[in-house]
Amino acid sequence: MRVATDIGGTFTDLVYVDEDGKVEVAKSHTTPPDFEQGVIDVLEKSNMDKEAIETFIHGTTVIINALTERKGAKTGLITTKGFRDVLEIARGNRPDLFNIRYKKPEPFIERYLRREVDERLNYKGEVQTALNREQVKTAIEYFKCEQVEAIAVTYLHSYVNPEHEMETVKLIKELWPEVAVSASHEVTKEWREYERTNTTALNAYVQPTATSYINKLHRKLTEFNTNSNNFIMQSNGGTTTFDEAKKTPINMVESGPVAGIYGAAVLGEIIGEKNVIAFDIGGTTAKCSLIENGEVKVSTNYYIERNDRTAGYPIKAPVVDIVEIGNGGGSIAWMDEGGSLKVGPESAGALPGPVCYGQGGTEPTTTDANVLTGRLSPKNFDFPVDMEAVQKVMEEKIANPLMMTAEEAALGIIRIANSNMLNALKLISVRKGHNPQDFTLVAFGGGGSMHATALAKELGVKKVVIPIASPVFSAWGMLMTDLRHDYIKTYIKRINKLDLQALHQEWHIMEQSAYDQFANEGIPKNDVLFHRFADMRYLGQEHTVKVPVPAGNWSEKDVKKIIDAFHKLHEQNYTFQLPDTEIEMVNLHVTAFGKVAKPSIKKIKRHTSLQEAKIETRDVYFEDPKGWKKTDVYQREKLPINNPIYGPAIVEEKAAVTVVYQGQSLTVDDYGNLIIETGAK
Fold first, then answer.
1. 3 state DSSP class of 176
2. Total-model pTM
3. pLDDT tens for each residue of 430-455
4. Continuous segment of H or E residues that includes residue 216
């Protein structure tokens, strides 16, 4: 049996597939700060045979939470003399250009915990100044006195030659074996001194937290009597073992969200939709990503806390390209000083949660608005819903100040939440030169199906897919993943002066590293698959374009094909090409997959009628035309295959609701997915 769990801000999700290909799901409340307990709770709630669990895959928000909440370890930095302040100098390309009060983000490692040592390599990796071991020892003693819990080591040009970093790490482990150590060459082999130093600092900052969490989770699973092979989801869309995850936990910064994106790509391939916008609405956030021709876009230009006011913090780790906003089912509606209605980014979370949960929530949320407008039924909650309390809070906090009814206020909350989400969808489509009409919207998460149809119509998307297991689809996506590691190395060479023999040797070294790492994870050589890419640019440019390149040894003919591909991709990304300008290779990128057995998705057999699937007819408050409408409500699991339903309609399933608006139609395909034609033109 293959099992996947995903921890969200409000719920912990589970999906498992048994030997017969049968898919089962479960949800339980997330249990901060002891998140591992939520995993055990949902395993017990599923009533599965614990001894039958062969593979356990886990997605977690522990890393991103530790960073955003500043709850990592007290961390020290050892760096090359003269580079102590690189974290503060950062970059000058600030986002808020005309703000004279602009302040750079505060480094995660304070200045008094950053120590310099004599050592120096040139850009070729040749030693100019030998490492001063005595200064390293002095730094270690200083960190001991300051009760540091983790140490980051970043030396200049160590991405070319890690000799001094390796020597420093060895010395630290000899003198202080208890402390966590992160060296930059183990985290990233890309250039950019500030980005590389910051990534290593953040890896060290979260390493004790990650190690503690993974150890506690492993202990809980052992107590649960499972003998499973355990894996954790990484930000690149693949998995890795528990032990590997503890070494570079920064690779889990977007562990949970990316699984749903990858799952949407897999589902798109199954149903013949290569161009997909993946859209995930949870309790706290909404996330979206664009998949073109079946390819999930992965980049190392990732930032946390970056917006139009602050530069944020760069992380040079492979991360699926995601836009994330603070709007979800638990997002709180509030009035600003000017009397305008706002939704999010603050969330009621799992505790106390929305008012309708009855767990002490006192602020109206998007979920409360959906209950009040009839989209969500009080009968489908795990606890009694006090509709009078929801009505009272909506009136006092929103409706009365705006001089409207509670229903109008609730509809206003839904429309503003939709507007926020629409902006995120435009960021990854329209603003990157893509026409949304060329894409299918795959919506999942607890709130995805409830908002997707309205958003698709606004965006001009013609088709919406609500996948099987949509409330726990990120966990479903994990079931479809392989082990994955990305090896990226800066290799700056002009394309017309390439030494092909030397280049082939570099590819070989990177791929051999992958074979070695997968061997430690129990993956045989025959099950390892490589994809190669090269980051390339016109000479003199700053930005690069990621170009797929062929495997094996290149010929001159291959190089010409790569140049042609670069010109076309550059024009696609930046609207122009410069065919007479020299081209430079910047980074080599090997994506290595360790193939594992995955469940097969089978077509469903169902002999039911719409009448059998119909639960009730109830009043639902719609915006177009505005007012209450008698709306048929159906149970998803009983809907007949390929039998259309015309809106307005509501389709209910465990932990999710799909809203079909007037002028839209819904059918169930052979795999159990809901296919909605939006009526967009």
1. coil
2. 0.85
3. 888 789 999 999 999 889 999 999 99
4. helix 193-223
